[in-house]
Specification:
The protein is α/β, with parallel strands linked by helices. The chain folds into 2 domains: 3-148, Rossmann fold (3-Layer(aba) Sandwich), CATH 3.40.50; 171-205, no CATH class. It has helices at 3-7, 25-36, 49-57, 72-79, 93-102, 132-135, 152-165, 181-189; strands at 16-19, 41-46, 63-66, 84-89, 103-111, 139-142, 172-176, 196-200. Helix 4 runs parallel beside helix 5. The structure holds NADP nicotinamide-adenine-dinucleotide phosphate. NADP nicotinamide-adenine-dinucleotide phosphate is lined by residues 21, 23-27, 46-48, 51, 67, 90-91, 112-113, 115-116, 143-145, 188-189, 191, 193, 197.
Length: 205
């Protein structure tokens, strides 16, 4: 999941990077890869104080905020007063609008997911500031991970040693038993996980 950071958002050293859903499976890896590859700053948003602490104290994010604490645009402006260059979007909605508003010229967004809208009963309004994309020359690109399997071998080759050495922290939230699958999925949507949410099957299955 770090691959779209490099391929689609054209991340380069010195960029200021914002990651939403930053304490989840995808976001936690993306933010760390940006840091390990020379981001000027990595800012994360997440849904609890514990997650925010984990991002800054254990994963090396430059700063992080709880999106429940106030408008995302305001918190992002405080964290990145000089703007952002790259946005990795796991959330959509208010986060996406805030990122568009915070982008510097030639800002790039990789759109991975829009979890804030998955349970919407009506189509949510789109970002209200899309016109900023023209003057700031922004690009936003969605992707599906399966379209990028050509980079899988490179990913394994480069990321495995980072995990083994502990430079890249990987965390799982594990629930036991297939009968917990549905409840676990609902809990994932509610933010019950830190890192990857995993349902562990019984040893004899
Ligand atoms: N494009 C692809 O190929 C692809 C592949 C896999 C996954 N995805 C997408 O990538 C995103 C992350 O997936 P993941 O598997 O790594 O899940 P995850 O981030 O580990 O778990 C989902 C997280 O979303 C957060 N969340 C829930 N409701 C939210 C809201 N209204 N606003 C902000 N955050 C909210 C929760 O954390 P908080 O406590 O922080 O709210 C929850 O822990 C999802 O949108 C998923 O659909 C895309």
């Amino acid at each position: 999941m770090g691959r779209p950071l490099f391929r689609l958002a054209e991340f380069k050293a010195g960029d200021v990077v914002f990651v939403s859903g930053a304490a989840g499976a995808v976001g936690s890896i993306v933010g760390q890869l940006a840091r390990l590859h020379g981001a000027a700053a990595v800012i994360g948003s997440a849904g609890t104080p514990d997650k925010v602490r984990w991002l800054t104290e254990e994963l090396g994010f430059t700063s992080a905020f709880d999106y429940h604490d106030g408008p995302v645009a305001k918190q992002l402006a405080q964290a990145a007063p000089d703007g952002i260059d790259v946005y990795f979007d796991n959330v959509g909605g208010e986060h996406l609008e805030a990122a568009i508003g915070a982008f510097n010229e030639f800002g790039r967004g990789a759109l991975c997911g829009a979890i804030s809208a998955y349970n919407a009963t009506e189509p949510p309004p789109g970002p209200r500031n899309m016109s900023l994309m023209v003057g700031r020359k922004l690009s936003l690109r969605g992707f599906i991970v399966g379209d990028h399997y050509d980079m899988r071998d490179e990913f394994i080759e480069k990321v495995t040693p980072l995990v083994t050495s502990g430079e890249l922290v990987v965390r799982e939230t594990v629930r036991e038993g297939l009968d917990q699958a549905a409840a676990t999925f609902i809990d994932l949507l509610r933010g019950g996980n830190t890192g990857k949410m995993v349902v562990k099957l019984a040893d004899d299955v």
